[in-house]
Design a protein that fits this description.
Elements: H1 2-30, H2 34-44, H3 50-57, H4 62-67, H5 75-78, H6 86-107, H7 110-136, H8 152-160, H9 164-170, H10 177-184, H11 190-211, H12 214-241, H13 246-249, H14 262-265, H15 270-276, H16 283-288, H17 290-295, H18 298-318, H19 324-348, H20 353-360
Length: 364
């Protein structure tokens, strides 16, 4: 009996160890998302409805627009608005989005915060590119700054710089120093400069996604590749519309996407380029808005944005306790801010409410 008892004890010990390990693994992977995802779900219920956007479109003045947001989460950010200028309102909306990112850093598991920090860096890239392009065009660079990102003070200093060489000093020690120096030396033009900024950014996003494990890697990697596909397809189509050759377009594309665009680059017309995309996974997205795309390519940008949000929402349903939930929310919140900014600008320009409703529905 003693050998049998020993075997049973060993077997039970192995089973207990395995169960403990699997339980610990489950707790590590899923439990940290229980509280933040429940809180985010409650926040999702407060995202503005189409009815609310229509109400805001009826505001007619920027003061009424602000008043109509007093029953929303934007109230505190708009409290200091006094002159009701478009600039003041836009800054308040940008602070609200920055507050959303700040909340994510506060409530999400430590291992997930890094990706949202990288998403914020995307605003750095956008701001740097916009400031440099404005400086080269002798325009007011501060008008093109969005009050978001991890290096906003540097970006604002760049906008105030008296010379292009002064910007190089400001960027010293940042990842963007070398590529800006190449622009200053005339080794690359401003288009190549912007492309290089985004190549660096998406490479960093993809590297982070690949460093994750299991479903977190699957979610983040798919998300990043979706972003790269969107950028590349829109870039290629814009270039085709402008009559650029394959050799001119290739350097503009970002590595890391899932769609091969070689055949598209070599076709003779914009219509043929659209036809080439028919057989890709984005075919249905393009077919739904094909006629509109031929008149206005921004329609496809909105269709892509909606598709990405829809896809992340599908992953969220499949992985309810995962990074998909905060990612889906931040995408929706960014879209909401873009719509609010668009409504405010259209009101300032005196556009009629019915037309505002139409135009805001087209915002990506």
């Amino acid at each position: 009996m003693e050998p049998i008892v020993g075997i049973l004890d060993t077997t039970l010990a192995v089973i207990f160890t395995w169960v403990t390990y699997k339980t610990g693994q489950y707790i590590y992977k899923y439990t940290p998302y229980s509280y933040p995802n429940a809180r985010i779900k409650a926040m999702e219920a407060k995202l503005l409805s189409e009815q609310k956007f229509n109400e805001l479109a009826e505001s007619r003045t920027l003061q009424n627009f602000v008043v109509n947001l007093e029953d929303t989460d934007y109230k505190d950010y708009l409290a200091d608005v006094s002159s009701y200028s478009i600039e003041e309102i836009e800054r308040a909306l940008e602070r609200a989005l920055a507050g959303t990112y700040g909340l994510m850093f506060k409530i999400l598991p430590k291992r997930s915060r890094g990706f949202f920090e990288l998403l914020l860096e995307g605003w750095d890239v956008r701001n740097i590119a916009n400031v440099v392009k404005a400086k080269l065009a002798n325009e007011s660079a501060s008008d093109y700054i969005v009050e978001l990102g991890t290096m906003l003070p540097k970006v604002k200093a760049m906008a105030e710089a008296k010379t292009l060489e002064e910007i190089l000093v400001i960027l010293e020690g940042t990842p963007y120093e070398d590529v800006y120096q190449k622009l200053l030396l005339g080794e690359i033009d401003v288009t190549k400069f912007e492309t290089e900024l985004y190549r660096m950014y998406y490479a960093k996003l993809l590297a982070y996604a690949k460093s994750r494990k299991d479903e977190e890697r699957a979610i983040l990697e798919e998300f990043v590749r979706l972003l790269v596909d969107r950028v590349n397809i829109l870039t290629a189509l814009r270039a085709k519309k402008a009559g650029l050759s394959a050799e001119e377009i290739k350097p503009m594309l970002i590595p890391g996407g899932t769609v091969k665009l070689d055949s598209l680059l070599h076709v003779d017309s914009f219509d043929m380029a659209l036809a080439e995309l028919d057989s890709t996974k984005y075919g249905p997205v393009i077919r739904d808005v094909r006629e509109e795309i031929e008149k206005d390519l921004s329609v496809l940008e909105k269709a892509f944005s909606d598709y990405i949000i829809e896809r992340i929402s599908e992953l969220e349903r499949f992985y309810p306790l995962s990074i998909a939930t905060p990612l889906s929310y931040i995408l929706r919140k960014e879209r909401e801010m873009r719509k609010l900014r668009a409504i405010a600008k259209l009101i300032e320009n005196g556009v009629k409410p019915e037309r505002i409703k139409e135009l805001v529905g087209e915002v990506a």
